[in-house]
Each structure stands twice: as structure tokens, then as C-alpha cells.
Predict the structure.
Amino acid sequence: MKKLTISALAAIAIASLALVPIASAHGERSTAATATTVQVKGGEFFFRLSTKSVAKPGKVTFVFKNTGHVLHDFSIHGRKTPLIQPDKTAKLVVSFTKKGKYAYLCTVPGHAQAGMKGTFTVR
């Protein structure tokens, strides 16, 4: 009976390994393991990011919530959300291929000058 139980457990363990994603022979990794999400809240006239930097280049998803009372957007690295109504949310996926500092801002006229801007760092 013990021998059957050990054999059954070994078979289950081996079958479980088949479900684990494995990197290809070319060294590719799962994008889920390298993806980063940054929560962004913006209102009159500020942005608050859950983090202002990432450890390395790659895809970053910015989840922008307009907590203000007027339309705002979020723009970074040549990409931007549409204008977002108050209390609404939009996602913006940006691929950073190089280390560096990237300016972000609200593109509504006058909003960046009023404080809706900052710098995001890719290390």
C-alpha cells in the first residue's frame, strides 16, 4: 500500500511540473513575471504614483484614476490616455526599452503648469 501511495504522489508531482511555464531555449521569459503596474491618481492639480521608478526596462501598465472634478489625462513617453471623466479610470501600457528619466504630465492646457507633471525613472 505504501509503495502505491509514493508512486501516486510522484506521478502527481511530475504532472504538476508540466503545468509550470518554462523559458524557451532562446532565453525568453514570461512577460507576466516582468510586467509592472503603477497606480496613478490625478486631480486638481497633482499626480500621485504608487511608485516613481522601476528596477529595469520593460512594460509598465499605468492605471490612471481621475480623482478630480474636471477632465484630465496622463501622458508619458509619447503615449497618453484619452481625457478621463472625474471618478473614472483608464489603463496605459508603455514599453520602456532604455534606462532613464521620463517626464509625465496632463496635456490639458495649463494643467502641467499648475503642477500635474513629474518624472518617472527606469533604472
Notes: The first strand starts at residue 36 and ends at 43. DSSP finds two helices and nine strands in the chain. Strands lie at 36-43, 46-49, 53-54, 58-66, 75-76, 79-80, 89-96, 100-105, 117-122.
